[in-house]
Each structure stands twice: as C-alpha cells, then as structure tokens.
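Reviewer 2 asked us to include a model.

Predict the structure of this chain.
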Amino acid sequence: MKKLLLLLFLIPNLVMAETWICSNLHNGKIETSAYKREGNTFIKKAESVFHKIDPEKYPKKNITTKYEIWNENDFQIKLIDSNKNTTGVWVLLLTKTNPPKFIVSNVTYLESPNWKGNCEIVE
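Predicted model (structure tokens):
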C-alpha cells in the first residue's frame, strides 16, 4: 500500500517533465535550443557564442538561462528571462500547435531581434 501511495505522488512530477527542442535558421545555419521544464520555469543550457568567435580570448563557457512562466494555457506558454541584471529582457513564446513553434526575442531600447522556428516536445 505504501508503494502504491508513493507511486501516485510521483506521477504528477513525471507528467510535468517536458522538454521543447526548437530549431531555427540563422545566418544560413540551423541552430537548435532545448528548453526543459523544471517546476514553474524552463531552463536553457547553451555554450557561449563568444568562444566560437575568438577561442583564445574567450574560454569555453556554458550559460544557463532560466525562464519564468509568465502565463500558460492550452494554446501557448509565455516565458520571460528571470535574470534582472541584463540589459533588456528575453521573452519566449512556445505555441502548442502542430507542429509546435517558438519565437524568442531580446527586447532592448535599441532593437528587438526575433528568432523563430519549429519545435518537438520530448519526455
């Protein structure tokens, strides 16, 4: 009985496991990002692009971006970067369409570039 009760408590946590693998075309190359749900946030882990530009000047560095869920419904998930120290704000919209899609933007006072593409939901 105790094992059954424990299993029932674990099921909601297993259902919430969700990773969006999203790709877009940028400067003629396919870029792929993974956004993994962890509680009320989505986490994106990536390698710093500065290392790719000048490996001698900039050591290889992994960057973790934490997006807070601003709003979620049956159609979309609206996310906002939780880092309050950066200039501007990163916003991310995941749409639960077929196929799933994403658009991400870095909104600053100078410009607001967008990246968009298709996703696959795994886990």
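Confidence is low (pLDDT under 50) at residues 1-15. Residues 2-15 form the longest helix (14 residues). We have added this to the supplementary material.
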